[in-house]
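Entry for fe (ii) ion complex. Fields follow.
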Amino acid sequence: MADIADKPQNVHFAPRRLAHANIFVRDLKESLAFYSAVCGLTEVFAEPAVDMVFLSNGSSHHDVALMQIARKDRGGRDGRVATTRGSEPGLNHLGWEMENEKVLVDAYKRAVGLDVDVKRTTDHGMSHSVYLFDPERNFQEFYSDQLADWREFYRNNVGQAISGSWDPLASAPSTAANYDANFSPEYVKSAPVQPREISRAGIIAEDFDKMLRFYRDVGGLSLAHLDEAVGVAVLMGTTGKPALSLFAQRDGEQTGLHHIGFEVVNEIELEKLHGDLRRINDAAPVEITDGRGKKGVVLKSPDGILLEFFLPTPGRAWSAEDARAPRDLFIA
Ligand SMILES: [Fe+2]
């Protein structure tokens, strides 16, 4: 198998956007309470067979999935092993929303044709997915929505395992675009932050150039910003919103997931936020990020994952400061 980023790989999944993060957590109950009561995300489905819950405020079938860490294999609906990973807290995978199934299958065919190591293809009932690792073992999922009404799918599958095998070549892929870009967010009203949807993630790269090549050539993300001297790249899907920041590793930094970012519905009132957080979760630290293009706060999950909640600043385009300033804040 060729090294995934040794030569140009014109696979170009070219997803629309970053649409979810799937996270391994040390204590599912504690994390679910944090992501709902503090982060304002609504639990929409549970898959007990794999100790997983899905949270969404309406953007798609999930913005965040939380999976209990375990030292055992977990089964899917057809008896196959759903995942053997996840013995430690952290990122399971990022989920990238494709325009439709045909675009996904066409990219899958190019990946196979170019000897790219596709790890699995899955039918989740509501979506079809292609999974692969980036060069530094951050797992990536490219998926197409197969149903327009994922809520109905959840209602019809309460308590069930929903994932099984999928053969992308078994039938003609659909060209229907089933995502809903104009949804009305429904958030947890009592939570101190009210996210509309996930929209960003940051990854620290040991080999910045190789990682950048992967996300451009295989991921098909386009470049919104590149500062090679600083070691920052910001990439976006076809919706044109910044979706992924790649940071070149600095001394002593751990590589892998750096943060996850959510766009919020309302202005964040900092004074109220501090009070609410003290009331709900004494341990949650609050940091303010204030780049030219956005303003927000950073919370830390029970497992130490950084979660940024931000409001884009009207009329101000994204700038390099948005990539640099938050990272410096996080590292401090
Ligand atoms: Fe996923």
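NOTE: The chain has two domains: 17-70+86-149, 195-324.
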